Amino acid sequence: MKFVIAGGSGLIGQALARQAVALGHEVVVLSRRPMPAALAGRGVTWDGEQPGDWQAELNDAQVVINLCGASIGQGRWTDARKAEIRQSRIAPAQCLVSVMQAQANKPVYLQASAVGFYGPGDTPVYEESPAGDDYLARLAIEWEAQADAYSGPTTITRFGVVLAADAGALPLMALPFKLFVGGKLGHGEQYFAWITVTDVAGALLFCIEQALRGVVNLVAPQTITNAEFTRAMASAVGRPAVFTVPAFVLRTVLGEQADLMLQGQQVLPSRLQDAGYRFADPEIAPALQRLLG
Fold this sequence. Notes:
The protein is an alpha/beta fold. The protein contains 10 helices and 15 strands. It has helices spanning 11-22, 79-102, 135-145, 170-178, 197-209, 226-237, 247-254, 259-262, 270-275, 284-292; strands at residues 2-6, 26-31, 42-45, 63-66, 108-114, 124-125, 154-159, 161-163, 183-185, 191-192, 194-196, 214-218, 224-225, 243-245, 266-267. Strands 3-2-1-4-5-7-12 form a 7-stranded parallel beta sheet, sandwiched between helices. It has a two-stranded parallel sheet with strand order 6-15. A two-stranded parallel sheet has the order 8-11. It starts with a strand and ends with a helix. The model has no long low-confidence stretch (mean pLDDT 94).
């Protein structure tokens, strides 16, 4: 099949592109900048907002995957940063959907979203669970709603925190532990929804192969708290974890962005499990040992 991956030069996009190419699929990556030859897939430049020559790639595509979105973990959440985060999600989704809806060929459309959709809480949440009402939930609601204008087959994939050995959040999370100052955040009982990049790519391909439509949670089946993650991290890097970062310190330093670390969701991948997906990394301790050991 021909895959078109918008935002495919990043961590998730490249993991997916490599797996798809290995399976014999053609992969086209839509990127705002010229793509280095070392990356997987054939690069095509676009601006993420306007139709252009790139849209010819969608005419014969069987699958379009939208992974566009600025990191919510980088930079303090000022009004300007929030506007950038929103624009980086809404504009590419609107642009892709508009082009696909106007053409005769209606490829399968997979749009990334996030488990922040559910809002913070301690009770288990599934794909059918209602949305929350905090900043991240409202962002996810608007982000997902862009797909409503598309009449073709659609899958919304809600990601947990994606863990990889040398990119994304994990190296930054591991650094305090390596410096002997790692520890739990706040009370440590907030849930931490996670998944390895290997399973993100595998699950996306599984959704395509099994024709899973609607919402699919892309998280590991093991639900853990921040305190449990802390213990697994300390063991993986061979360091103690005796410190606690008080909530008021995080809120003083990060402001509203501290909610990313102090609040969480107990998210379960019920649709993936019901469909028979086999996780490469179902448990946090061996996953961290593999990634950091």
